[in-house]
Give the backbone structure.
Amino acid sequence: MKKILKGFLRSLGYTIAPIIVQAVEEDTLSISKEEMERFMYEGIHLHRYAPWLTDEKFKQLHNKIKDYTLVDAYRCYELFDIVQRLNNIDGDIIEIGVWRGGTSAVIATALQFVNSNKMLYLCDTFSGVVKAGDFDIRYKGGEHSDTSEQLVTDLLTSLQLKNFKLLKGIFPEDTGSAVENKTFSLCHIDVDVYQSGVDIVEWIYAKLSKGGVLVFDDYGFRGCNGITHLVNKLRQDEKWLYIYNLNGHAILIKR
Ligand SMILES: C[S@@+](CC[C@H](N)C(=O)[O-])C[C@H]1O[C@@H](n2cnc3c(N)ncnc32)[C@H](O)[C@@H]1O
């Protein structure tokens, strides 16, 4: 009976997301990995509008960058789309959490497609994750250190992209001052752990234009409990219009 009810509700798509979000934050997931993967992706790419499978410009770009990113095609497509839509919102773009530059290349290419004069600031320690704490049960610090500034520069220049600047160091402590007086329309936060996320949101709020957007990667992902916890706090705050896109992105729009 339980199985039939579960299947019926799942077919309607109603109760799946809350169960996953809650379970993932508590890390007490009681469904199998296979079931979770099906929940997370089947509905998205088989039954709904799926432009990442049909947009030729995006597909060509994705082929070139897919080995330089940990982010799947769904989320890359979302960044590609949001960047183009935000061209009329005042302010530059900042990404914290670059690793090998895959999502950075997506954002910079999207800017080029709309002939934007926005600058893209790319912030990373280039020596891995920092500030891991109690919420971040799968992080200790130093993860994703297998990259370099040169590798990212080479990727972006091989794609004829010029509209970017790398900022090496812990953000915001080491590199925030380099962009202190800027205004931003978009901040892509892909830092894996709670405290880095907190510090970034605190730093960027006053510099984000009205209608400007925070895109959080890893929302609801197993292992990124700290980010899920942070977004679950921010989504209660009236300052933000919150959208959960079911693909691992949480989107917060400044009201
Ligand atoms: C998951 S990776 C980023 C993935 C990347 N966006 C992609 O396309 O695959 C996370 C990155 O965040 C960086 N990072 C984490 N916290 C940071 C902080 N406070 N300041 C700067 N870099 C940070 C790490 O060095 C690491 O390279």
User: Anything to note?
Assistant: The chain has a mean pLDDT of 89. The longest strand covers residues 208-216.
